[in-house]
Amino acid sequence: MNGGNGPSSYARNSSYQRRAIETAEAFLRKEIPARVNLTNRSFSSFTIADFGCSSGPNTILAVDIIIQALDNKFSSSMPKTKTPAFQVFFNDVSHTDFNALFALLPPQRPYFVAGVPGSFYGNLFPKASLNLAYSSCALCWISELPPELSDTTSPAYNKSRIHYTGAQAEVAQAYSCQYEKDIKSFLSARSHELAEDGLMALIVPGVPDGFLESQSQASTGSEFNLLGSCFMDMAREGVIKEEQVDSFNLPVYYPTPKELEDIIISNGELAIEKMVTLDGAEAQDTMPELESRVLYLRAALEGLIRTHFGHQILDDLFDRYSLKLAHSSFILNPQTHKSIMIFTLLTRRH
What's the mean pLDDT in 253-259? Predict the structure, then answer.
C-alpha cells in the first residue's frame, strides 16, 4: 500500500476498508467480550495483534473499538480488579510506512504500542503470547504468485491478463490452491501464537457463494480486467513490452464464505465460533465518484506496478484507466458489485 499522506496514499484512499470495520463494529463489540474467559483467570496484561495493519487510520479505529469493548468487559465483570494493561502490536510487511501509522496515534491512548514487521504467513510472536489476533481486509493478499501463471508450457499460463478474473479455469485454480496453502499457514502460525482461550477476529474480502466460477461478474475483478486492458494497450503502442504484461499478475484472491470455512475446518487448529457476511460494506457507498475508485486502486497497486514496470508509466496507466472507467457502465453500476466482507470469529482448540 502507498504510504505517507499524499493524494494517492492508502491513508487517504481506504474508505472502503474503513466501512468494513464500521460494519463489523457491532460484532467486534459483542462477540469478542462475550468469549473472553475470566473464570479463574487474572490478566496483568492483555495482548492484541493486528495482522496486515497497513499505514492509515483504519487500524487505529479497529483497536479503539476492540479495547473499548474489552475495557467494559473487565470493568463490569471484575469491578474490584484493576483492568489489565493493553499491549497492541501492529504487523505488516517490512516496507509498510510504520512512521506514518505511528504519527496518527493519539498521544493519550489506553494501550502500549509496538510495530512488528514481517509476513503474517509465518510465525511472528512467541508461543501462546497473544490473547487476541485481528485482521481486516488483508487476507485477500497471497504470499506469492503460483509459478505456473508465467510458465508458457502450463495450462495456467495467464497470457495478456493480470488476474484470474475471466481467465481460463486453470488460472483460477492455481490462485485457489495458493490461497488455501497461505491461509492454512496463517492459521497454523496464529494457533501457535494464541494463548489458552485466545481469540481471532477476521474481516476477509470475498465473493458470495456461487460466484467463484464467474468472477468476471464481480466489479472488483472487472476493474482488474480493465486495468489489464490498459497494460495491453500500452504494450501494443510500444510503451511497455507484452512480455512484461504476461509475467505480471496481481497477488489477490477473493474466497467465498464456503471456501474460507472449508479451509479453516480442514486446517483443524482453530474452531469457528461465528461466520457471517457483513451487510452495508458496499464499494459504491464509500467510493461513489469515479476519481475515488481510481485512487483506491492506485493506492493498493501502485507499489506492485512500480516494482515490475517502473515508475515512468504510472500516471499514463491510471489516466488511461480513468478514461476507460468513465465509459464502463457495468463497473460503475452498483447492481454489478458482487464482492462482500466475511466476518469470522475463531477460538484456539484445546
Answer: 94
pLDDT digits (tens, 9 = 90+) for 309-328: 999 999 999 999 999 888 87
Q: Which domains, ranges and CATH numbers included, belong to the chain?
A: 15-348 (3.40.50.150)
265-271: long-range contacts, CB 8 A cutoff, minimum separation 24:
266/184, 267/183, 267/184, 267/187, 267/188, 268/349, 269/187, 269/188, 269/191, 269/348, 269/349, 270/187, 270/190, 270/191, 270/200, 270/346, 270/347, 270/348, 270/349, 271/346, 271/347, 271/348, 271/349
- Average pLDDT, integer, range 111-128: 96
* 113: enclosing H helix or E strand: strand 112-117
- What is the value of pTM for the model shown? 0.91
- For the record, the C-alpha cell of 90 comes out as 501492529
**What is the grid cell recorded at 285?**
457507498
Handedness of CA 187, 164, 168, 158 (dihedral sign): negative
